[in-house]
Amino acid sequence: MGRAALIFVILMTTIYAGILTSLNKFIGGVPEILIRNQLNKEAENVSDFALRNAIRNAGSQEFLDSYLQGENFADELTFTQSFDDFIIGNCRIDSLRYSYVNSRSHYKVMSYITASLQGQEVSRNAEMSFNYPFLDLGSDKPNIMYLEMERLILFPWLFEGNNYLPDSSGNNYSGTAEGFSLISATIPWGGAFSRYCTKFNGIDNYISVAPQPDSTGLDSLNTDNSFSLLAFAKFDKKGGFLDTGPPSQGTLIWIPSDPYSSSLRYKPSAGIWYNKSDKKLHFAVTQDDDENTMLEIAVSFTPYAEVFYHLLGIPLFNPAFYEYSWGSYGLTYNNGVLKAFVNGVLVGTQVGENVRAYPSSYGMSIGRRDLRGGSFSSSDFQYFCGVIDQAGMHDRALIGSEMHSWHNGVMSSTLIKYIRD
Amino acid sequence: MGVLLDVLGSVIIAATLFLMMMTFQLQMQETAARIHYTGSMIDHMDTAASKLNHIMAMAGIGVPVDSVCVIADESRLVFRTFWNCESDTLSEDRHLIDIKLGDSTQHGSILEINQDGTLIEPLGYILYIEDVAFNYYDKNDNQTTTPANVMSAEILLTFRRDSPWRQDQPLRTNIQLKCFFMNSYLQGA
Prior knowledge:
The structure holds 2 protein chains of 2 kinds. Chain A has 4 helices and 24 strands. By secondary structure, chain A is of the alpha+beta class. In chain A, strands 6, 9, 10, 12, 19, 20, 21 and 23 form an 8-stranded antiparallel beta sheet that branches. By secondary structure, chain B is an alpha+beta fold. Chain B has one domain (41-186). In chain B, strands 1, 2, 3, 4, 5, 6, 7, 8 and 9 form a 9-stranded antiparallel beta sheet that branches. Chain A binds chain B through residues 1-2, 5, 8-9, 12, 15-16, 19-20, 22-23, 26-27, 29-30, 33-34, 36-37, 40, 125, 129, 134-137, 139, 414, 416-421, and chain B through 4, 7, 11, 14-15, 18, 21-22, 25-26, 28-29, 32-33, 35-36, 39-40, 42-43, 46, 50, 57-58, 61-62, 82-83, 88, 90, 92-94, 182-183, 186-187.
């Protein structure tokens, strides 16, 4: 009887303990929800307060004098105000961040808040911009190959592989910066822009883009019936060390037709270059007809940028190169119709037979001609002297307005306002 | 015999007391479960509303005002922005944000938030949704169905979740909120 009573008590106690545990779980979860809700509300309010203060500071001369101490607003200037004990209720303002571009009226501010209570922690960030420069490329990016050069390549000679320029079209037509650069192969645009570009000394610098052959081994860059090419550049005024020597200036983009063939190596599938002798920009496409006709448009052009100066024959980079404006140089080809564009404006049209362009299977060369299978002098390669950026290829012939918006998309820095809270 | 009767009597009294306490505790357990359920649903709905409000506030950054909204259907909203909703930062690429009702699961349907065709992680889904309905308004707060004019959206969300104590009787809760394309307004709409 005593044992039965003991078993009964143990059984009842176990059931009771189970009920209590379950009860504790549910009751215990309720405060967590309430605390998290309370913290979120508090953090939201404190975040608003912090952001308002940051906006007021950003426009205050006293604040600028005190914290920025007379630093000028060239390029991007960022300042972070960090706090250890700025506590409001259960919230802590960790930091306020200020970014200015070019002017005290072009800025954005960011606030970083954390809130904690009874083991729960939430964080909240907010930001707001006023006339902040914003760069975009419009609606379409080049979809075959696009080298944006957005990579700082320091000491490319130091170790192998440190000269890689990614292809942001997603097709892996990455570029390799070739030739010697003592400190860096790429440099910032300067001014209001945060882009990088690649410099070419006119002696041995160029970018090679390896082919990605399809199953036929041809058309690795789709120089077929319809395509577009564009690159931004600043042509050096002198075009190389020897102003009176052979025309070293300069090839912008060169998609070889057949670099081994003596009859075709100077006729690219598609190419854009400046000839120092005739002082003209050349836009060319070689057609896949019986005679391999090269459609060519030549436009008068005078290089104006001082990108390099020379000391004892050594090209030294001019840090003030950014003062000279960028130009864009592009072509479109559509079933026998070649069009040339400078700064997004149509400058010439050439009509040939309605055939495709010569198939390309050798990749692309930026900054010099691609010549192979012979002995060539430096002047044969027509090295480019200056800086190049945003080189790309599209798989169709863009219309004039699209070429224009491509140019504007890169060059325009739109001022925008936005808030994220 | 007298001792046996005493023991039996005390066992009966103890069992009665135990049963009373257990009944009381069971009722408390159910009450706690109800509070927990209600609290967690309110929390879930609050989070869902904040999430939708935040995502839609970022519509139109860097985009011309009349090109922000692409699709304005009763159960789907697609808009453009240069805000990267995945990393929650300003982007140099334009993104397409798609808010739509996804497939039904054992926990109800999921309201999906996709960026350029990919579900945003970890913010891109809202659980326990049974139905969603969008109504759209222009900048003068007049109802519209023209995507180019959309400046705000009224969202009616129906949440459905199985009751913790009556599995066969799911509980439904409605929430109605109005989300503004705040950044489109900032850009001069």
